[in-house]
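User: Please predict structures.

Assistant: First:
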Amino acid sequence: MEPAKGKMRRTSSSLLLRITDICKVRSVAVAENVGEKPNAGSTGGSSEDGAHLKIYPHQVSDHESCSGTSTARYEDAVVEKLLDAVSSLKLAYLKVQQAHVPYDPEKVAAAGEHFVSELEETAGLKDLYFGVSKWSNPMYQSHVSSRIHEHQKLALELQADICKKDSELVLLRAEFEELERRNMELKEEVDRRALLMHREISFDIGKGGSIDMFMELFENSSKCIHDFTKLVISSMKVSGWDLNYSKFPVDKSVVFEKRTDKKYCVEAYFARAMLMVTKEDYFSMDSFYHVMSFKDPFDALVESPNSNFGKFCREKYLVAVPSNMEDSFFGNLDHRAFVKMGGHPRTQFYQTFARMARYVWALLTVARFLKPMAEMFFVKSGVQFQKKHMESVPAKLTTEEAKISVGFTVMPGFKIGCTVIRCRVYLSMLNTRDS
């Protein structure tokens, strides 16, 4: 019996060493190649060690029941199977993790099914083990049972971790959908406010040709010119239009405080193009009251495309919007061709222009019929800033006004007798060049 006991001890020791070796190699195999099913070759042992030995419960002879060699063979085979199953379980869980990053519902479901399958296969080893009637060593049974229980507990923990992550993903998805819904609501609110901002405010035409009416028209004209300029600048950015184009002339000595301040050059260009001298027969107080009675100026153009206002709108469009700018924005000159034929295109761009044109046309109409007549004035580049006649755009506060000069006029001012509506200017340190 002594040689048999010695052989059994050697078998147990070698088995523990083999388990340690297999676990190490399995860990490396998982890192190197996730997609491969573990096999006996990757463990460093041969198939003769029992890695692929199929075990079936069966009746054995009395001689086998007394043979330590037979028991050791069953032990090796079951442990090999157990180690393979644990390695497969690790690989299945790793695939579950990979399916979550990035999150792919189909891959997660497939990986979960594969993991459950591996888990059931691992659990089946327990039944196989206890089905082998000749594995009667209580200590060995306790050892294997504790290992199986340990790995089953680990598998349950991993499965609980998967369920937890699934729950977190469900919550995150619900939060994401809620954010999407709120974003849509905010977008609708922004669009609604933008529509209200552009919607024409009913103009009070019961004041007559008064200074108060003129000042209100001046503010509305300035705002509409500013809004149309924003639309043009947005189109310029999209189409790659050069902001330094010669149509926006500015004294080269002007020093811009910010690069974005060049937008005031574009606004100054449109203000000058819209307000400069035009045909006197375009202006009539009778036409004024009729055109201003419409909530949307485009309705006035549709009703009377060749009215005084309609002619003014067409003339100013052809002057203010260069053909190469239009071609750059739209890829064609359809707007221009339609306007030249006497029409008014029903597009967002032209409708925004029409809103601006109506207030400018109304401003110039009332200016001619005021008593005394309103006189428009611009401020030349380099003139010293004076608060009485000028307003800084953007607003600037300085204690050294003597050193500040006008770069260019953004919006001209008006004089009505002794009343002055200040012009809006962009300030620059121009006078430093003469010192």
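Second:
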Amino acid sequence: MSFDEAYSGKVFIGSRTSYTDADLVLFGMPMDWTVSFRPGSRFGPGRIREASVGLEEYSPYLDKHLEDVRYHDAGDLLLPFGNPQKSLDIIEETMDGFLRDNKFPIGIGGEHLVSWPIMKAMARKYEDLAVIHIDAHTDLRTDYEGEVLSHSTPIRKACEWIGPENVFSFGVRSGEKEEFLYARTSGMNFHPFEVHEPLQRILPELHQRPVYVTIDIDVLDPAYAPGTGTAEAGGISSKELLQAIHSIGHSGAFIVGADLVEVAPVYDHAEKTAIAASKFIREMILGFPKAR
């Protein structure tokens, strides 16, 4: 597929640059084949794009405008319904292509398993890769009811791929006892319940390191993001997640890509979740890419 081909669907606000000329590529991964509770996150990428129309292109937080970034919305990947392995293969092959073309990728899910092939591709290019994981759930299972391809497993897979000491989890407040035990004994950098304070302490350790950022929208309290498949009470606010995104962007880390996953719009008729997600993505587009 040529990403310079016209995308027939809606695009994220401000996408004007061709793939060839773009520095940053936004793309959707509409997959929810392995969810454990409520499906619907495959509709997240499209609804986030639609919600972005209500955004200003200017960020007063960063004093930047989307016109300042050459980015291209490549649309949604065509993922075969109900086939997790083939879908993951397509995502990984696509990511390899983006990295060969020196693009900064920002992915929109979809369930959280879509982050796994991206992290694999990133680790092949950046041998000292670190992962910042912001989520309500540990995602540290080896399988879910015998299925190793599950949205409850991507962070465990990342730990086994790049080493648990290179994975930094924040905001987690749900998981099996065995997952919490693994997080606390494996060498992971595990910071449950909170995001802002532990993130401020950890970011100096990531100075100049290549860092991939994966954000599950369910880190937010359901009051702010009811439109997700596995909502979990006791989360952070939209303001706190914005602060975290800005802290990461302002840090000395070399951010190499990011994703935002698990928006399931059918469960949020007020569209609070998609509206918040579109703003987070705008801030990532404007704040994450850095020259090295």
